[in-house]
Amino acid sequence: MSPYQTFAQKLTALIDSVRADEGAPHSYRELSAAIDRAGGPTMSPAYLQQLATGKRVNPKIHYVEALAKLFGVPITYFFDEQEPQPVGEATLMAMRAQELSPQGRRQVMDLLELVERYERAEREQPEENR
Fold it and tell me: Where is the HTH cro/C1-type domain (predicted)?
C-alpha cells in the first residue's frame, strides 16, 4: 500500500483505534452523538459512514475540524501524507468522558488531579525514602 492514505482510510483508522467497552469499534451513531454533544456540526451516522467508506470525499472544513476534535488529533492529520498514528489512551479517556454528566466529568477531573499530585510527590521523594 502506498504511504499516502485517503481521508476515508485515515478516518477508519481512527474509528478502529478507539474501541467501546466490548472491544468493538464505536458505531457511526455513537460517533455522531459524541460530535453533537461536543458542540460540533450535525453529522448523521449515514454521512459518517459515507466518509469512512470513501463514498463521500472532500468534507467541508467544519466537519473535518469536528472529527479532529473528537479523536484528539490535529486537523492536519487528515491532510498530511503520512501513516496515521494510533489514538492513545488519553483520547479514549476523553471520548468516554463525553458520555458523563457534568458532575461525573468533574469527579473524573478531581480523581485525575489526585493521581497527578500523588505521582508528582512520588517523583519528588528522595530515592532512599522510596
Answer: 43-78
The CATH H-level (homologous superfamily) assignment of domain 7-99 is lambda repressor-like DNA-binding domains (1.10.260.40)
Provide the whole-model pTM: 0.60
> Distance between CA 55 and CA 86 in Å, rounded?
23
Per-residue model confidence as pLDDT tens digits over 74-118? 888 888 765 545 555 666 666 666 667 778 777 877 777 887 888
Q: Report how far residue 12's alpha carbon sits from residue 80's, in angstroms, rounded to the nearest whole number.
A: 15
Q: Give me the residue spans of the domains in the chain.
A: 7-99
